[in-house]
Design brief:
Distance between the termini: 86 Å
Largest sheet: none
Order of helices and strands: HHHH
Number of strands: 0
Structural class: mainly alpha
Helix content: 40-55%
Number of helices: 4
Shape: elongated
Length: 150
C-alpha cells in the first residue's frame, strides 16, 4: 500500500506570503509616486507626444479645419463655422512660416507651403459657399455631429 503524503499548512507560511504581497504593493506604489505626472498615466492628464514642428503645424491646422466647419467640434460634436477664428489660425501658421524661414528642412518648408495652400483654399471655399448672413456663414450651422459637411 502506497504511503500517503500529508500536506501540512503552516500558518506562518500564510502570514509570510501576505507580508510579501503587502511589501510588493507598497514598493509598486512608491515607484508610481516617484514617476513624473506625465508618466503615471493619469486619465485627466495623459502623456503627450514629443514636441515637434510638424505636430505644431498639425495642431493649428486641425483647429483651423474645426473652425471652418470641416470637422465637428470635439467638445460639442457639432459642425460650426467660425471664419474669423480659422483666418487667425491660418495667419498664425503663416507667421511661423515667415519666422522660421531659413531654419527648416526642405521637407518642412514643403509641408508648410502645402498646408497653407490647402487651408487657404478651404477658407475661401467655406466663406464663399454660403452667402453672408445665412446661419452657416454666421456660425449657426445646423448640421448634426453625424453629418459631415457637403
Amino acid at each position: 500500500m502506497p504511503e500517503e503524503k500529508k500536506i501540512i499548512v503552516d500558518e506562518d507560511w500564510k502570514s509570510q506570503v501576505e507580508a510579501e504581497k503587502e511589501a510588493l504593493k507598497r514598493e509598486a506604489e512608491s515607484k508610481q509616486k516617484d514617476k513624473p505626472a506625465a508618466e503615471q498615466g493619469d486619465v485627466g492628464d495623459p502623456p503627450m507626444p514629443p514636441a515637434s514642428f510638424d505636430l505644431l503645424l498639425s495642431t493649428l491646422a486641425t483647429e483651423a479645419m474645426v473652425a471652418l466647419g470641416a470637422f465637428p467640434n470635439p467638445v460639442t460634436g457639432k459642425y460650426q463655422s467660425h471664419p474669423n477664428q480659422a483666418k487667425y489660425l491660418i495667419d498664425m501658421i503663416a507667421v511661423l512660416q515667415e519666422k522660421t524661414k531659413g531654419n527648416l528642412t526642405p521637407s518642412e518648408v514643403h509641408a508648410t507651403e502645402g498646408l497653407l495652400h490647402q487651408l487657404r483654399m478651404a477658407y475661401v471655399e467655406a466663406t464663399t459657399a454660403y452667402p453672408a448672413g445665412t446661419a452657416q456663414a454666421a456660425g449657426g450651422d445646423s448640421r448634426s455631429a453625424a453629418q459631415p459637411p457637403q
